[in-house]
Design a protein that fits this description.
InterPro entries: Globin-like_sf, Globin/Proto, Hemoglobin_trunc. It contains seven helices and no strands. The chain is an all-alpha fold and about 150 residues long. Helix 2 crosses helix 3, helix 2 packs across helix 6 and helix 6 packs antiparallel against helix 7. The longest helix is centred in the last third of the chain and has 21 residues. The mean pLDDT is about 95.
């Protein structure tokens, strides 16, 4: 059985490094920082870390403690994310993965990029004023897709 993406990445500490590296970059970014007036709080960083942990196969603490998908949806509704902000978010997350020292093997990065693209496009759609959103859904559980991690036998 292959490890989860959460396990492969380095578990909780790796995802916290990722989220801190990401939001450190966001706070210095002219296009993204307006989405977080006053900066990104510790509480926000901790909550987003729990989301990413759950999505990548770790414990379901975001759902259990914070309300799951519906809570994440509420944070994006009517935010008015632009296509340029979505693209910059994705680029910034890719750089943050390097900053945080996440695995750089092609299989992990393909799964990582797949989630970033899927998630940012969904957030873009759900953030528009008259968006037709899915009101209730489980937190996605991202997996390896077609290429599980290569491990020598």
């Amino acid at each position: 059985m292959p490890p989860t993406l959460y396990e492969w990445a380095g578990e909780r500490e790796a995802f916290r490094r990722l989220i801190d590296a990401f939001y450190d970059r966001v706070e210095r970014d002219d296009l993204l920082s307006p989405l977080f007036p006053g900066g990104v709080t510790e509480e926000h960083r901790a909550h987003v870390t729990l989301w990413w942990i759950e999505v990548f196969g770790g414990p379901s603490e975001y759902t259990d403690q914070l309300g799951g998908y519906e809570r994440m949806l509420a944070h994006h509704r009517e935010l008015g994310i632009s296509p340029d902000q979505r693209r910059r978010f994705a680029e910034t997350m890719h750089r943050a993965a390097d900053d945080a020292g996440l695995p750089d093997d092609p299989e992990f990065r393909a799964a990582f990029v797949g989630y970033v693209e899927w998630g940012t496009r969904l957030a873009l759609q759900n953030s528009q004023r008259d968006a037709d959103v899915v009101e209730r859904a489980p937190v996605p559980r991202w997996g390896w897709g077609v290429a599980p991690p290569w491990q020598p036998s």
